[in-house]
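Support reply, case 0932

Customer input (verbatim):
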Amino acid sequence: MATTVVKQGSVPGERPIGWALMGLAALALAAVTVAAVSVLSQGPASSPTEARPATRVYTADERAAIRLVADGVLPESILDAEPFRTKQLVAQGLIPAETLIPKAVGPAPLYCPEERALMAAVAAGVVPAEALEGEPYRTKRLVAQGLIPRDSVDPCW
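Our regenerated output:
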């Protein structure tokens, strides 16, 4: 009578699957290592034209306010207001730095000094309100309301 000794948990005539599982684990570890090395060796994703400007975003006074908030002297809610909010978005790279550049030339004033003087006289009650019913006041009111383009009126020089 022949007796066969069988290890507990295995079936006679069947291969153990441990070697296949170990092989898959080693292959997965190698794939993760290769992916990590390739990502780390690529460098920054932005091109040189998209690089952030070297100038600081915050002025000296704003940096002092940030330090005072960090020290607990000022409330933290100050940093949620402008200009800190916009500058934080620029510093994080979420909006372009050009947002902070002030516009050098704004639009020309809609009303000339003479027209503003007449409107002030009407508001003071010196001149009757009917003086503002004609041109150019009617057209400029439509421009101010956004109903017609600004180019449709003569600019004040």
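We compared this against your earlier run and they match. Two observations from our side: Residues 18-41 form the longest helix (24 residues). The CA atoms of residues 66 and 79 lie 8 Å apart. Please reopen the case if you see a mismatch on your end.
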